[in-house]
Amino acid sequence: MVQFSDDGQWWWDGTAWVPTAQVVLPQLPPTEFEQSGKLKTAGGRLRKTGWLNWVNDAGCFLSWIALIPALVVIGPALRDYRLWTLEQLAAATAYLLGPKETMLAGEPTLLLPEYVGDSAKRDLAVAVTAEHVLLFRIDFFDGQPRWIALVARPTDVNMEVRSFAVAGFRGPALTVSSGNAQWVISGVPGVWKPKAVLDAWRTASAQTISR
């Protein structure tokens, strides 16, 4: 049996209750995306186009010129990173909740790299199941979901899509709120897709209320 307490503050690891804040996910098995070699290809694309992000960070007129080509060139790589992260989220959710409570939808923070040669910026990710909303913190060094920022019932969480401004343009952001805490998961327009998460959360909340 693998599960969380009703308040989400404790996780049963099969032998003992562990405070959720102290749970550290082990290294997950390689995903199909990694095994196929697509992740390596995506990383190569970002490294080759790192100069575009340096220009965007320069805060000068050239940033407006480089913005569109940066998204056009790097967009496919960011889409690959998103697919890889979704596979990881599904694996992390299965590890914590077991095979009977699968991830219905998920979405990570997905922004342009901040440094030349850096991977896609991903620091938070949300996963929705029929019974829970899980918010993961991503390990900077290997990109895997490593820690748990939130575990809550769908009815104890609120989600909505807002907009944010960065580098002179606006993009979508998903706010996840529980009690007095709030987290923001943002992404590059055209790559990042929060609708599935919102739909899954609304469905799970409605089903919980109807029980």
If you had to describe this structure to a student in words, what would you say it looks like?
The protein is of the alpha+beta class and 211 residues long. It has a single domain (3-210), classed as Roll (PH-domain like). Helices cover 35% and strands 27% of the residues. It is built from five helices and ten strands. It has helices spanning 32-35, 38-48, 50-56, 62-97, 195-210, and strands spanning 3-4, 10-12, 17-19, 105-108, 124-128, 133-138, 145-152, 158-166, 169-178, 181-186. A four-stranded antiparallel β-sheet has the order 4-5-6-7. α2 (38-48) packs antiparallel against α4 and α3 (50-56) crosses α4 (62-97). The chain is globular and about 45 Å long. Mean pLDDT is 80; it is low at 51-66 and 114-120.
Domain tally: 1
Name of the CATH class: Mainly Beta
Kindly state the number of beta strands.
10
Class from helix and strand fractions: alpha+beta
CATH architecture: Roll
User: Which blocks of ≥5 consecutive residues have pLDDT under 50?
Assistant: 51-66, 114-120
The strands making up the biggest β-sheet line up spatially as: 4-5-6-7
Give the CA-based shape: globular
Biggest sheet layout: 4 strands, antiparallel
| Fourth-tier CATH superfamily name | Pleckstrin-homology domain (PH domain)/Phosphotyrosine-binding domain (PTB)
Offer a few descriptive terms.
single chain; alpha+beta; four-stranded antiparallel beta sheet; three-stranded antiparallel beta sheet; 5 helices; 10 strands; 35% helix
